[in-house]
Amino acid sequence: MATLNKVDIRKIRKKRARLKRKLKCRFCPDGHIPRPVYVDYKDTKTLKQLVDREGRILPRRRTGTSAIFQRAVREAILRARFIGLMPYVADE
Q1: Closest CA to 29 of 66, 1, 60, 78
Q2: pTM exceeds 0.90 for this model
Q3: Which among 34, 45, 54, 47 has a CA at the least distance from the CA of 76?
Q4: CA distance 61 to 50
Q5: FRET partner for 55 with CA separation of 20 to 30 A, picked from 7, 14, 77, 87?
Q6: pLDDT tens-place string over residues 12-33
């Protein structure tokens, strides 16, 4: 069996990364964006899935959220934090 050098390993990893499953927006399941665009700030269960352990909002490429809903998610997380439903930072 041939040994793989660092360049070959990098190429294989890049190829795997490209072949990952295409993420879909959880807010528009059928592909069309419902109007009005709204994400409920009181739904902390959904919002916590869109925030990492440190309390930062996850980017679109990690969650698969569409651009228009990513803006709504950001607004909802900011509202939930301001009201006190979600923490600004992680408990440590």
Answers
A1: 66
A2: no
A3: 47
A4: 12
A5: 14
A6: 888 877 766 778 888 887 878 8
Pick from 24, 23, 4: which is nearest to 13 by CA?
A: 4
Helix, strand, or coil (residue 54): coil
Residue 3 token pair: 């040994």
> Tokens 């041939």, residue?
2
d(CA 30, CA 18): 24
Rg (CA), the chain: 18
Residue 72 tokens, joined: 């709504």
Instruction: Give the distance from CA 54 to its chain's centroid.
Output: 14
